[in-house]
Amino acid sequence: MPESIDTIGELFARDPFELLDKDVESIIEYFQGVRAQFKLSGKGGPRVEKPKTSLDDLGL
Amino acid sequence: MPDKRFHVDGRQWLWSAHSLDIAETCHRRYYYEVVLNLSTRSENTHALFGILIHEAVEEYEHMINAGLSHGAALLGVVTEALKKTWDRETGEPKLQYDQLKLLPGSAHLKTRENLIRTIIWYLEDRKDDPCVTETLADGRAAVELEFSFELDKEVMLRGRMDKIVRYAGEPFVHDVKTTGASISGYYFKRFELDMEMSLYSLAARTVFKSPVNGVLIDAAQIAVGFSRFERAATYRTAEQLAEWIVDTKYHIHMAWEAKNKGYPMRLSACQKYGGCPFLEVCRRDPRVREYALATGYVERDHA
User: Fold this and answer.
1) Nearest CB to A12: which of B74, B113, B124?
2) Residue of chain B whose alpha carbon sits nearest to that of A35
């Protein structure tokens, strides 16, 4: 699992005909991870109502 | 070498949705883009990006149908996409941001990294898709459907559909579109009178004998940090398609006639959809337009 975008940048810069399956899997895992974070941020996927954070928000 | 899309007298007889669309928009643009087969580098970028997404989706389906797991198919598709976007002559990747950022519009978003991200996210999104591929009357799966059929004795229409699917109990042609714009109801509205969607609907009914209701569109928004997907249908009735045939014949005959009039400009179309790609040519003195064409445009990759 790559730890940084630099690692992904290096993989993208390499000749893909010489990449191993594990290299491509790292690229896939990286983008899957980005998507998971993106969904958590509430910007992607189905819209989810934000949790109520105070009594005011709950209308109490 | 003569262009096989044209009669010997110069009239186009083999028409795609793209050439119909351009002929209807402006006859001068039709001359530059279809007759001379020119485009901007920006347009070629959008076309390449779209084609690579379509190919990835097709390859994924082939692999799933051959019994591969989602993970294995995804690995295969991403590997292929990386190879297709690598220039082996120069040893450099294609669709690099440093080159795309010089192009107008949203071309800077169509990078190699965004392509790979979009493929991965889209296939993750659609791995449990309720769409079911239809079977044609001859028993074949309704995928990768190339078609050409006679509109009349002098005109053939041609194209290629991804597939015909059944969704929520109804048959549709299925298509994927990419855009740099936000996807909303407004975005999908443009397809209600879209040339390509009408042609697909007509071809599905006449060539493949599939009683489709219209086209189911998967739209992919390509942004700087994310890709987002939405799905919507555009419908066509038999009456609407009959009207489309009459109008299309008219526009083809007008394009033929335009050749005898020097392909007149339609000035009301110049600023639409972010501006015509040939604006920089048409705005110049006629004596220097040929130079502008030679220096600012390239031959279209996909006629």
Assistant:
1) B113
2) B121
- First and final C-alpha spacing in chain B: 15
Range(s) of the domain holding residue A31: 5-58
Residue to substitute from B113, B122, B184, interface A, most A β-carbons within 10 A: B113
For residue B45, report the phi and psi dihedrals to the nearest 5 degrees. Answer: -65, -50
Q: Which helix (H) or strand (E) holds B248?
A: helix B238-259
Cα of B239 vs its chain's centroid, Å: 25
Q: Where are the domains of chain B?
A: 41-125, 132-249
Domain count, chain A: 1
Tens place of pLDDT per residue across chain B (303 aa):
567 889 888 899 999 999 999 999 999 999 999 999 998 877 778 888 999 999 999 899 889 888 999 999 999 999 999 999 999 889 999 888 888 887 777 888 889 999 999 999 999 988 888 998 888 888 888 888 999 999 999 999 999 999 999 999 999 999 999 998 888 888 999 999 999 999 999 999 999 988 999 999 999 999 888 899 999 999 999 999 999 999 999 999 999 999 999 999 999 999 876 678 899 999 999 999 999 999 888 887 655
A18 to chain B: closest CA residue:
B83
Report the predicted TM-score, pTM, of the whole model to 2 decimal places: 0.84
* Six token digits for residue B182: 């936000």
